[in-house]
Task: structure prediction
Amino acid sequence: MNDLFWLTILLFIVAAALRSELFFYLLYVIAGLQILARLWLRQGARRLSWQRHAPLAAFPGEELTVEIELRNDGLLPVPWLALHESLPPALRNPPMIREVLSLGAGERRALTYTIVGRRRGYYKLGPLTLRTGDVLGLGERTLTEHVPDSLTIYPPIISLAELGLPASLPYGTLAATKRLFSDPARPIGVRPYQAADGVRRIDWKTTAHAGTPQVRRYQPAIALETLIALAFSREEYTGRYSYDLMERALIAAAAIAAHLTARRQPIGFCTTGHDPASGGPSPALPIANGRAQLIAVHGTLGRLEPATKGALAPLLWNAGARLGWGSTIVMITGQGGVELVAALLPLKRRGLNVALILAEPTPDELGLPRKHGITTFGLWRDGRPTMR
Result:
């Protein structure tokens, strides 16, 4: 465009000096082309819109399809459009998408590509950059999105046995006749009749259909909650393999949450980690039940990043203040010792069940809380069975 500007100035000087109609004609043509190109480019860029359609969350190893929708709502075609999409290397290699295309007047075009979340985390898709120009190549304009889309990769879900933890930990409410009472207003199905069942619980319609006695099942009227507390700051994990231990502790929290949800137990969650979505400390999740709560916990764990400093004990006091008598607190941390036991004992005296899970503990770190009646387990990188 600079070259044409100086060419226009030169033609104007020559045309004015020679008073030549030919040079004036060339001047009008070149000036008109520049004006037309500017108007075309401005109108095309103004009427160009785009939208990215991508999932908000996924599990590790899941293949995801992302669609970029481009629309030209103007009356003039877009002769060429160069698209550049930046992606995290953990989602795609090479970490970019490049395409060149054209859009007719009123045309819509959709571009798709696939990504794979290989490890848990919080990722940004973008920014998306579009570069376009006029049909004569006299000018260009670059458009960039201001707010990229985000994607959360959940932590992997593994069983407690794979972590070396027993499934019989004191997690919340278990099936015990002394702790649960049936609520006839909340039926959850039927099961075969047993000798200990009363006659009033027989579902006669289902019995007639099945041909064998069937009794109604009800949801428990009393459910004791479990609060999962995860230490996730760098000062709470020490040693050469601190990063691996933190990830394993996070996976353990996800496994416990899935285990309790499968058993229809209400859970809550708190942590000292950092949430990049909010840009601050990760907020505590109040006690709730169901799959929606599990997804919320896994979403928080997927986004979680280590904080520089953090103390889990104050969070436990705030979150545990809303727990009822007999509820359970499962604390997962990489740092044991006298201070930790001193912070947990008042919770135990309040009538709460406390289960402590330590990452790579020493024999002393395991023995001290057990002496004070705190159920304690070890979480090792090699997945060895926890010491009793």
About this structure: The chain has three domains: 46-153, 161-175+222-379, 187-220. Helices lie at 2-18, 21-46, 204-210, 242-262, 291-303, 312-320, 338-349, 363-371. Residues 172-181 have pLDDT under 50 and may be disordered.
